[in-house]
Structures are given as structure tokens and as C-alpha cells.
UniProtKB/TrEMBL annotation:
It holds the Pfam family Abhydrolase_6. The keyword Lipid biosynthesis does not apply. Residues 1-24 form the signal peptide. PANTHER family: AB HYDROLASE-1 DOMAIN-CONTAINING PROTEIN-RELATED (PTHR37017), ESTERASE_LIPASE_THIOESTERASE DOMAIN-CONTAINING PROTEIN (PTHR37017:SF11). It comes from Rhizobium esperanzae. InterPro entries: AB_hydrolase_1 (IPR000073), AB_hydrolase_fold (IPR029058), Sec-Metab_Biosynth_Hydrolase (IPR052897). The keyword Transmembrane helix does not apply. Gene3D superfamilies: alpha/beta hydrolase. This is Pimeloyl-ACP methyl ester carboxylesterase. Residues 32-244 form the AB hydrolase-1 domain. Keywords: Signal.
Amino acid sequence: MSRNLGLIFSALVAFASTSPAAVAADLKAKTVVLVHGAFADGSSWQKVIPLLEKAGLKVVAVQNPLESLESDVAFTKRAIRDAEEPIVLVGHSWGGVVITEAGDDQKVKSLVYVAAYAPDAGQSLVDVASKYPDQESRKTFVKDEDGYLKISDDGISRYFAAGLSPDEQRLVAVVQGRFHVRATTMPVSHAAWRDKPSFMVVATQDQIIAPQMQRDQVKSAKAEMIEVPSGHVAMLSHPEEVADLIVKAAR
């Protein structure tokens, strides 16, 4: 074989080893189930979904009602039930509480928390957050007469979706879901991260969930971690890094 042919052959081998088909062959998980946070919907994952599919994974983005922990867990468990296993279960923000409870399922291989809460058994979102100083962003949360919370447009741009373009911030504000306050005080009965391999994205510029809380949760869960210089919606501002960690959790 001539030198040039040898170089071409080597290049083809290298390409094959990093092609989507080759990556897919290296994955143990088949499906990624994505769980959005409060004040959001499945479109939160719009930039991550094509990257996961390109890697050879099936993807399901749950559309949770944000009514209560019980209802969000029920919606997520239906998605798990219908998905091909093994499954990587991913949660952003409030979605971390949901996957902590819903992840106690034999079909779930691993958990990924993206700028998310990861309470222990018997803890609620409020229990976890109360150990840290209140974030300035909480002043932009508005509660209606039925107990549903939303974030003001100013709060979306300054805190929740900080780091995104004005057009992206406006879209986040338009699609935000109302989140019932009762969900914040509902404790999880079992912490799935105690039994499953866990991976966490720490958003170092997060103004919704304190970065120190996120780092402390990494230690508690003995999770594999990456840090990104991002605000709260890390999957929209740093989709490649988030997708890479999810793919790693699928291996």
C-alpha cells in the first residue's frame, strides 16, 4: 500500500470510529427522556434534541403540567413506561426533583441533572433551597389568586434566561408554564441518585438556583460533573456541553 493510500485508509478508520453509527454502537442506553423545569415546557430542549439524535439516541421530551410533584412524576413515568430501555433520565431545574422521584425505575440506567434540584428522600424543593440565601430573582416571581407562579418578562430576561439573545428570551417568556406553588413543598419519597449513576451540569452564573447548591449536590450524589459559564437555562446557552454529558451518561 502506498503512503498516500495508507493515509487515506487511516483517515477513513478515524472517521468511522467517530461517525454517528460508531458512537451509537458505543452506547448502552437507547432512549433519553428529557424533563423540563418550572416555568418551561419541552421546547427547553430544542437545541439538545438534534445533538442527541445525531449521536444515535432516541429522545422523548415530556410535557409536564407543573401542577404538583405527583402529577409531574406520573407524566414522566408514562414516558419511561413507553420508551425503549435502557433510559437516561434528564431533568432541568424543578425537573431534577421530578427525576429524583421518577428515576426509581428499573428501566432507568442513569440520571442527568442540568442546573437542577436534587433533593434527598423526605426533602422538598423548599427544604433544599432554604439552606441557601434567597436569590434576587425570586422578587420577579408573581403568584396569582389560584396559587400559580409565573416570572415577569423582566425576570425572564434578567435572571431566568440570562445569557440568551433578546429574541430567545422573548420566546422563553411566551412559552413559560404556570407552576403551582404547592409543588415546591412536596417531598420526594426516594432519591434515585442514591442508586443510579448520576451526572450534573453546574451553571456557574445561575441566578435561579445557587451554583453553590449545585456543587454541594454533586458531592452528595457523588456525581460526575461539568461546569459551564451559563445562566439557568444551560441547555439553551450551552447545548453542546449538555448533550455531550448526556451521551456520556448513555455509555
